[in-house]
Amino acid sequence: MDPPAHEQAGGVDAVRAAVRSRLRGTVTDIAPVFGFTLTFALTHRLGVALTLAFTAGAAGFVHRLVRKEPVGRALGILGFVCVQGALAARTGQATSFFLPHLVLHCVMAVSAPVLILLGWPPLGVLVGLLTGERTAWRRCAVRRRAFTKGSLVLFAGNVLMLTIQLPLYLSGQAVALGSVDVFGPLVFALGALLGWRVYRRALGDHRCDAPLPANAPANAPANADLSNGPARATGPARATGPARPADPAHATDPVRTPD
């Protein structure tokens, strides 16, 4: 059963709050990439740039820990920076620091159309996780189509980032690549926000749960079948024939006395 209207409204608030939180956390997300790019542009020393990137990631983790905020994302970013740093240190190329981001964008660019064709638009999956309804939205064809339109916005933003970053990576322009990569989290957050607006516009006033008719009784149950009119209260069952009590004292035949 699809969630009622008040739960859908709560889901809208949850998505908006998640997008705002993502936008506020963009500074923490881009700090390692920004620190690496700026340091490498000024010094051209890979070791110094990697040290500053790791320091920025650790600082973001400690900042959220001190503020008693969820540290899962900051810890994930710190681990991601460690992977980036290991690749750059192993190859000796600054551009290798951004290789994990390129791989992630490629995976998203390939998987998004496949998921849309299979009826699992990425925006719907993301919203289902944020609102707690999981996959309930897939039961409504209108919502599936609306989520597909919104997912196309996410897909377009991801492809745009990839078409800019891939030539820079192949040409070895680490500073330019980092300058573009800094805007990656911001582009994703704005793409999600714009995709959500496209979804809401495509959805319009549609509600998956049909409201009760105007002539329905006030005490009608929510799952009552009102397709043929308001539900009628059912009284006690009426017997179709004369009642035959089991008590012999109320027998219908006259009592015969012995002769």
Task: Write the SSE topology.
Layout: H1 5-24, H2 26-43, H3 46-66, H4 72-91, H5 99-117, H6 122-131, H7 141-170, H8 174-181, H9 184-203
Could you name the key traits of this structure?
mainly alpha, disordered C terminus, about 260 residues, 9 helices, disordered N terminus, globular
Structure description:
- The protein has 259 residues and is mainly α.
- Helix content is 64%, strand content 0%.
- It contains 9 helices and no strands.
- Helix 7 runs antiparallel to helix 9 (184-203).
- The longest helix has 30 residues, at 141-170.
- The radius of gyration is 32 Å and the shape is globular.
- 26% of the residues are buried.
Helix content: 55-70%
Instruction: State the distance separating the first and last CA atoms.
Output: 74 Å
Instruction: Calculate the mean pLDDT score and round it.
Output: 77
Number of helices: 9
- Quote the beta fraction: under 5%
By DSSP, the count of extended strands is 0
Largest sheet, strands/sense/barrel: none
